[in-house]
Amino acid sequence: MTADDRVPEKGVEGHVEREVEARPGSPGAGRASGGVGHVGAPHEVVTRASGDRAEAPQKRKGLVVVNTGDGKGKTTAALGLAFRALGHRMRVVVIQFIKGQWTPGEIKAARRLAPELEVHALGDGFTWVTKNPEQDRATTREIWDAAAAKILSGDYDLVILDEANVAMKHGYLDPAEVIDVLGRRGPLVHVVLTGRGAPPAIVDFADLVSEIRAVKHPYRQGVRAQKGIEF
Q1: Residue 24 to residues 6, 32, 68, 177, 210: CA-CA distances in angstroms?
Q2: 200: CB partners within 8 A, 6+ apart
Q3: What is the Cβ-side half-sphere exposure of residue 212, based on CA atoms within 13 angstroms?
Q4: Residues 153-174 pLDDT 10s
Q5: C-alpha distances in angstroms, 222 versus 71, 84, 217, 218, 229?
Q6: What are phi and psi of 187, to 5 degrees?
Q7: Which domains does the chain have, with CATH numbers?
Q8: How many angstroms separate the CA atoms of 77 and 79, rounded?
Q9: Rounded distance, CA 86 to CA 80, Å?
Q10: pLDDT (0 to 100) of residue 94
Q11: Distance between CA 211 and CA 22 in Å, rounded?
């Protein structure tokens, strides 16, 4: 095999990583250089050339991320992702579907990180055991309308819908409507949905799903929610 029969395989940055033997009659035979995508069967070169340049693999894609399960840490994980995104100068908005009776630490921190980070606590305090479903349904509609506008605006790189799964679980928000909006968002917009009981349709649509399982919790030992840990 001569030097002309060897085809360089290039990585996404265009650097030669290794050379593979071109099978006679294959697209890479007799060429010393050119766009090479990936290697298929042994001695077979598969190209994805567009003109004289290879099409690089898709490196970026807006993801739908779901944090669900009965364990603690779903919102915490989402906020950690927000903090990571801010480190890369990405624009982040958090919309909370449930607002507690106190001002949580993330709201206080967000005020220090504005305007790069926005946090909107729009819920009126409904919980998993609701006493006014009609009010909860109306409140959820207002929150979702605001959230959908944020997702479709193109103003944010990361949108976190905190406890949106709970709203869907209780029938206050239609998963099909959520999927419709997610499908119409910008191609690089990431959306995170947190909360237990994520509907199967949302799980199927998502790109990344994590289920957090409760193994131990201090509440079972009589330890109440603590500042800086639960809120």
Answers
A1: 11, 14, 52, 53, 47
A2: none
A3: 17
A4: 999 999 999 999 999 999 999 9
A5: 17, 34, 10, 7, 15
A6: -65, -15
A7: 3-54 (no CATH), 64-221 (3.40.50.300)
A8: 5
A9: 10
A10: 95
A11: 45
| Neighbour count for residue 52 (Cβ, 10 Å) | 8
Give per-residue pLDDT as tens, 77-125.
999 999 999 999 999 999 999 865 567 787 788 888 988 999 998 876 6
Q: Tell me how far apart the alpha carbons of residues 210 and 17 are, in angstroms, rounded to a whole number.
A: 34
Q: For the packed helices 175-183 and 133-153, what is the interaxial angle rounded to 10 degrees?
A: 10
Q: 109: which 2 tokens? A: 């921190």
Long-range (24+ apart) CB contacts under 8 A made by 32-38 are 32/3, 32/4, 32/6, 32/7, 32/8, 33/7, 33/8, 34/7, 35/10, 36/7, 36/8, 36/9, 36/10, 38/9
Torsion of CA 207, 150, 94, 176, to 10 degrees: -50
DSSP 158: E
Residue closest to 124 by CA, chosen among 69, 70, 163: 163
Q: Which helix (H) or strand (E) holds 198?
A: none
DSSP string, 30-71: T-SS----EE-STT-EE--EETTEEPPPP-----EEEEESSS
Residues β-bridged to residue 39: 45
Please give the C-alpha separations between residue 164 and each of 105, 121, 138, 141, 169, in angstroms, as whole numbers: 20, 12, 14, 11, 9
| Rounded distance between C-alpha atoms, residue 94 and residue 161, angstroms | 6
Burial class (CB in 10 A: 0-12, 13-18, 19+), 190: buried
